[in-house]
Amino acid sequence: MTSLTSLRWSNLLLGLGIASLIAGETAAWRWRTLQEDEFRRLYATLQQRQRRILEGMLTIVCKLVAKTLNIPCNARYFVAEKDQEGRYYIRQDRDLAVLNIRMPREFGFTRIYVDTPHIVSGKAFRDRVPLYEELPDDHSNWYEPDVGRMIEPQQRWVLACPVLRLDSLTNSHEMSHAPRGVIVFYGTQLPDEAASADAVQVCLGYAEQFAEQMSHVFNMLELSTELESSSHGNTSGTS
C-alpha cells in the first residue's frame, strides 16, 4: 500500500501495463483458438475428400475383380477395433461398401471377433496376408448361431486383404500394431475353374494395391494431425 501510494499517477502506468498484458494474452488465446477451429474445419474437409477418394477407388477395384473373375461381387471395408477385454473384432463400415448382390443377412451384421473360426477376413487380419477361399454349400453349419445369422448362406467365396498400419514417418509396416481393418470382396457365384487360378492371383494383387493405398491415405491424415499438434504445442510454449 505504501508503494502504491508513493507511485501516485504512476499507478496509471502500472494499470495500463497489466491491462496490456491481459489483452495480449487474450489475443494470443483467441488466435490459437481460431487456428484450432480452422484446422478442425480443414481436417474435416480432408477426411470427407479422403472418404470420397476411397469410395471411388473401391468401386473401381470391385469392378476389376468382377471383370477378372467374370462374376458379380460385393466389396466392403471392415474396421478393426478392440473391446474392453483387449480382443479385436471387425465391424462393417457401412459407407465404404459396394453392394451389387443383395444379401439379406448382412443387414443385421454387427461385429465378428477376428479369432472366430472359419472367418476368412479374421484370418487375413491375424496373419496379415491377403487370402482367397471358396465356401461350400453348407458353410452355414460351420458357425455358432450368433455368427451364422450374420453370414449369408448363398455366399460362395471370399477374398480378404488386411489394411496394415504404417509408421507415420517411414511408411514402413508397424509389426507392433494390429492392422487398421480388412478389405473384403465376395459373391454368390464361383469363378470358372479353368480361369480361376490365374484370375484369383490377379484379384489378390488388386486387393493388395488398394489396401496399400488405404494405408497411405490413413497415414497422411495421422501425420497431418501430429504435425498440427506439434506446431500448436510449440506455439503454446512460446506464448
Structural topology:
Elements: H1 2-7, H2 10-69, E1 74-82, E2 88-98, E3 111-113, H3 120-127, E4 131-134, H4 145-148, E5 157-163, E6 181-187, H5 193-238
Antiparallel strand pairs: 1-2, 1-6, 2-3, 4-5, 5-6
What is the makeup of the main sheet?
6 strands, antiparallel
Distance between the termini: 31 Å
Order of neighbouring strands in the sheet with most strands: 3-2-1-6-5-4
Structure annotation, total helices: 5
Percent in strands: 15-25%
Task: Describe the global form.
Answer: elongated
Q: Give the strand tally.
A: 6
**Structural class assignment:** alpha+beta
**Roughly how many Å is the radius of gyration?**
27 Å
Model description:
The two termini are 31 Å apart. This protein has a 6-stranded antiparallel beta sheet with strand order 3-2-1-6-5-4, sandwiched between helices. It has 5 helices and 6 strands; from the N terminus they run H-H-E-E-E-H-E-H-E-E-H. The chain is elongated. Helix 2 packs antiparallel against helix 5 (193-238). Mean pLDDT is 82; it is low at 235-239. With 239 residues, the chain is an alpha+beta fold. Helix content is 52%, strand content 17%.
